[in-house]
Amino acid sequence: MLAADHIDRLGAILGPQGLLTLPADMVPYESAARYEGGRAAFVARPASTEAVSQLVAYCVRNAIALVPQSGNTGLVGGSTPDDSGTQGVVSLDRLRSTFTFDTYNRSLRVDAGFRLSEINARLEPHGLFFPIDLGADPMAGGMAAANTGGARFLRFGDVRRNTLGLKLVLADENGTVIDCGKELRKDNTGPDWKQLFIGTGGVFGVVTECVFNLERLPRQAATAYLVPRSGEAALCLLNELEERAGTYLSAFEGMSGLAIRHALTHVPSLRNPFPAGEIPGYVILVELSRSWARRGNEQALDAVLEEMLAEIWDLPDAPLLDALIGAPAEMWALRHALSEGAKSAGYVVGLDLSFRRGEVMRFRERASGWLKAAFPQVGICDFGHLGDGGVHFNLVVPHNPDGSVDAKLVARLRSLLTEIAVEEHGGSFSAEHGLGRRNQHFYDRYTPEKLKQMATQLKQATSPGPIGGVRF
User: Which of 91, 177, 257, 314 is most exposed, with the fewest beta carbons within 10 Å of its own?
Assistant: First the structure.
């Protein structure tokens, strides 16, 4: 428990709305989006970069550990405190003063506390959006700290690619403010310092303001569910669509049949779109989009997509078994319901993996075969971004009769499947979720020693104080 004089001093720094110490008030900040959580010494809610600086400086000088938290939508235990009750949470939810966009530059300067949904709702009337598409609703600062990806990475890239600048506070005795916030796409005057902090989960510093690249809001879209003949055929479909659609291709998402089934069961408003209700073993959601309204005699995107699929259908190796063209909103609603559908069916062991694109389906086949033989009671509800080599290989473990889960089984599944992904298929154990406590073991095991040494040195150079949910 933190000494009373520390609490008093932090209260003076943050003001009456800026510090939470009562257990009931801290629960939302201690609880994670999925399972992981802990116990906080306090929750600090600064409302400005200056307040973050004063808070961090005081805590570093007094060896008080901090965990930065933005929208708290992460799934790897990187934004919540551990069970010790000694860590303070630095929530960015009151950092909401700055929201200025430049239509000519297609850029947005925004404080860390704005959520993705609000950002895009404000930009929509101006025909712009921040091109990160997620099932969750994170805040700006957390998206930068975690380097969020999403379902349209194939077309627009991740947060790293769409960040022009950052403002952040270092965890040193001065709470040093670093401003890398130029609204420039080209600035070759030295190291691109903002990239040092993107994707490091706040361990190198607390992001308080972001400058994001914006894109033109799509004005036309066409979507279809594709049923590939095999895993190899799924990759063939990707290549064929890239060749035919070019930059129109904005998403290529794989979904397992069991994940779809759980989503349809969990969300009754969803319609089963498959003939006779028979859900295929694997389905691909493909999207084409344009940023302009349809012109005159321009062929509609639905017709463009139908024509491309007809060409692919006649290929000698016949990679396509079936195709259903449908309304984008309806098709994406099913895709975005997959996570909650799996969660409703049991305990979800989520692995966020990435591979060379050609290895995704090979890993899936290898892992599925092993699981069916060794753990037939475990359901495979994987889905992911085939177009960029990412897969959320989610497993559903049935709860015990008392509602508990076999923790040893969960740990074994996570460890062995990560071993298969990294050692046999050359993959990454964290495609877009970051590190956090859940992935600390895999970081320690698979990161080369020299790179770990360099990360430690960078941590000491930027933020030597105790901050973040992972050890570098």
Answer: 314
Distance CA 450, CA 100 (A): 41
What is the separation of C-alpha 70 from the centre of its chain, rounded to a whole number of angstroms? 13
CA atoms of 357 and 249, how far apart (whole Å)? 16
- What is the pTM (predicted TM-score) of this model? 0.92
Gyration radius from the chain CA atoms: 23
Question: What is the per-residue pLDDT for 134?
Answer: 82
Euclidean distance between CA atoms 92 and 34, whole angstroms: 20
Q: Which residue has the tokens 């897969």?
A: 391
Answer yes or no: are the C-beta atoms of 250 and 132 closer than 8 Å.
no
Task: Write the single-letter amino acid at 36.
Answer: E
Q: CA separation (Å) from 290 to 71, 117, 146, 216, 301?
A: 30, 21, 28, 9, 8
Q: How far is residue 403's CA from residue 398's CA, in Å, rounded to a whole number?
A: 9
Mean of pLDDT over the chain:
93
What pLDDT, on a 0 to 100 scale, did the predictor assign at position 173?
97
